[in-house]
């Protein structure tokens, strides 16, 4: 991969990878670290990609794996975050989408990730199942549970309320 191609893929996918990591980890600094690691992996990757969509799916899969590694790490499990999860900033999002993502942070991480990939990245259930390594039925179940949880949170907190 040439430097020019690499820059093109970074420009296309930087926000998607960062937002996926932020959705998964709920911590801006960790999401930035994951994003950097994912693009380092892309830069050093020697395999071939079919098209831009294949690269995007590969990058999101790498981001999810990096997030899981962080959540499993000894350091992460036994340390306290420097900032509260409620202080997460959403850059590059419209105000309403940012508030919705903020409310989504209260969801279970599995449901939150599936909802994000489905609605924000516009993946189908079958594509999500391949990306995160679960069955399509499990993806559908997480979508249903996530929508119910999200509806309750929206009704409780409301998108129209100033936070």
Name the features.
single chain; 163 residues; mainly alpha; Rna Polymerase Sigma Factor, Chain: A; Arc Repressor Mutant, subunit A
Give the secondary structure arrangement, pairings included.
Elements: H1 3-25, H2 28-44, H3 52-72, H4 74-77, H5 95-104, H6 109-120, H7 125-132, H8 136-157
In short, what is this structure?
The protein has 163 residues and is mainly α.
Explain what you see.
The protein has 163 residues and is mainly α. The protein folds into two domains: 89 residues, Rna Polymerase Sigma Factor, Chain: A (Orthogonal Bundle); 70 residues, Orthogonal Bundle (Arc Repressor Mutant, subunit A). The chain is 72% helix and 0% strand. The protein is globular. The termini are far apart. 26% of the residues are buried. About 9% of the residues have low confidence.
Helix/sheet category = mainly alpha
> How many angstroms separate the termini?
45 Å
Count of DSSP helices?
A: 8
User: What is the count of structural domains?
Assistant: 2
SSE pattern: HHHHHHHH
Rg from alpha-carbon coordinates: 16 Å
Report the biggest beta sheet as strand number plus sense, adding barrel if it closes: none
pLDDT averaged residue by residue: 81
- Give the CATH topology of the largest domain: Rna Polymerase Sigma Factor, Chain: A
Helicity, as a percent range: over 70%
CATH class of the largest domain: Mainly Alpha
Strand % is under 5%
Low-confidence stretches: 82-95
Compute the number of strand runs. Answer: 0
**What sort of overall outline do the alpha carbons produce when their principal axes are compared?**
globular
The CATH level-2 architecture of the largest domain is identified as Orthogonal Bundle
What oligomeric state do these chains adopt?
Answer: single chain
């Amino acid at each position: 991969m040439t430097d020019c191609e690499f820059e093109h893929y970074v420009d296309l996918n930087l926000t998607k990878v960062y937002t996926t990591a932020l959705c998964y980890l709920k911590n801006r600094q960790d999401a930035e670290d994951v994003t950097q690691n994912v693009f380092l992996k892309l830069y050093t990757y020697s395999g071939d990609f079919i098209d831009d969509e294949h690269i995007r799916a590969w990058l999101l899969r790498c981001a999810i794996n990096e997030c899981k590694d962080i959540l499993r790490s000894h350091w992460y499990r036994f340390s306290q975050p420097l900032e509260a999860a409620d202080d997460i900033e959403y850059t590059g999002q419209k105000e309403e989408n940012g508030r919705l993502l903020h409310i989504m942070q209260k969801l279970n991480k599995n449901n939150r990730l599936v909802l994000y990939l489905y609605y924000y990245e516009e993946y189908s259930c079958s594509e999500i199942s391949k990306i995160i390594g679960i069955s399509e039925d499990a993806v559908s179940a997480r979508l249903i549970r996530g929508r119910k949880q999200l509806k309750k949170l929206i009704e409780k907190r409301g998108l129209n309320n100033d936070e």
